UniProtKB/TrEMBL annotation:
This is rRNA adenine N(6)-methyltransferase. Its EC number is 2.1.1.-. HAMAP family: 16SrRNA_methyltr_A. One of its GO terms (biological process) is transcription initiation at mitochondrial promoter. The keyword DNA-binding applies.
Length: 342
């Protein structure tokens, strides 16, 4: 504690700048891996502020790279920080940071898509699902090619309360390509409304925090970046298995600009297509001439419930695959000599 009464114990001691770290360890960004770094600590502080109050928190940072966001996290008075980085080149620079914050930071050299985060979080941070979110946070600026599959995986984990969510409603603050961030947060009827909007919003309170212009990164990516904050809901807005919701939403959006009826039809085998589509929309009380983007989460809940009811009445319906039926049909119409006979 200083004479002014300010706590200084959680602040990092003076360190080389991120730019110097990059030079020192020859960390040239690999374009093919979409590595774009944030060197401006005011920006990394801003991202971390949007994660909420991190005092005494357990934080996992995914893809720390040269460690800009890492420094901002370490400066917030966290209890512990776990970083998961895939690229070996960054490990020495991260070790330098870990030495500057003794006992606070653990480095995992691994792939976040396969790393079992649930094993890494300390048990005493666990909170009841129905209670407040645990003091556990995930923060990351990952390549776009990783952040989208990762959020889909984590949304399924939220639905099943496993993975990083065995600890309760773990909050996440993640970056995405701006267009993806817009889809995640898009409201009913907006141009960006898509599958991702429904999947994220039926499970989470999703908030768009701010946009980082591409020019803030080194090297500069072609697109701007959106920071998005997720808090899992106590009660998901749709109470059906994740895979069922995912199927209904995917099919309904398969003809984005057409009436929703057109996409819903693809849930059913040709022989019963029209009858079951009409039945499903009627049970759900959804106007067949609405476009998929005009449907609210409540309407997707009704559609998922209706589809579940039809699946329980029609054996094998859930496993029916529209694309497979199309493929078979095409095969049948091919001349004999072009068929792939095994
Ligand atoms: N967070 C740093 C920043 O903001 O400056 C680096 C951002 S860079 C866009 C993405 C980082 O994620 C890189 O360091 C990259 O090596 C790492 N990364 C990429 N794929 C990963 C994965 N599957 N698991 C863990 N880290 C990954």
């Amino acid at each position: 504690v200083t004479t002014t009464g300010k706590m200084i114990s959680s602040r990092l001691p003076p360190l080389p700048t991120i730019g110097e770290i990059i030079k020192l360890y020859k960390l040239r960004a690999k374009k093919q891996l979409s590595q774009n770094f944030l060197l401006d600590l005011r920006l990394t502080d801003k991202i971390v502020r949007h994660a909420g109050n991190l005092k005494n928190a357990y934080v996992c940072e995914v893809g720390p790279g040269p460690g800009g966001i890492t420094r901002s996290i370490l400066n917030t008075g966290i209890a512990e920080l776990l970083v998961v980085e895939k690229d070996t080149r960054f490990i020495p620079g991260l070790q330098l940071l870990a030495e500057a914050a003794p006992g606070k930071m653990r480095i995992i050299h691994g792939d976040i898509l396969t790393y079992k985060l649930e094993r890494a979080f300390p048990k005493h941070f666990q909170n009841m699902w129905e209670g407040d979110p645990p003091n556990v946070h995930i923060i990351g600026n990952l390549p776009f090619s990783v952040s989208t599959p990762l959020i889909i995986k984590w949304l399924e984990n939220i639905a099943n309360r496993n993975g990083p969510f065995v600890f309760g409603r773990t909050q996440m603050t993640l970056t995405f390509q701006k267009e993806v961030a817009e889809r995640l947060t898009a409201s009913t009827g907006s141009r960006q409304r898509s599958r991702l909007s429904i999947m994220a919003q039926y499970l989470c309170n999703v908030k768009s925090c701010f946009t980082i212009p591409g020019r803030a990164f080194v090297p500069k990516p072609k697109v701007d970046v959106g920071v998005v904050h997720f808090v899992p809901l106590v009660q998901p807005q749709i109470n059906q298995p994740f895979k069922l919701v995912e199927k209904v939403v995917r099919h309904t959006f398969s003809f984005k600009r057409k009436y929703c009826r057109r996409g819903v039809e693809t849930l059913f085998p040709e022989a019963q297509r029209l009858q079951l589509t009409e039945q499903m929309l009627c049970i759900a009380d959804v106007d067949p001439t609405l476009r998929p983007g005009e449907l609210s989460i409540t309407q997707f809940r009704a559609l998922s419930d209706a589809y579940n009811q039809l699946c329980s009445e029609n054996q094998n319906l859930f496993t029916y695959d529209f694309r497979e039926e199309l493929r078979q049909k095409k095969l049948l119409h091919k001349p004999n000599n072009q068929r792939n006979v095994r």
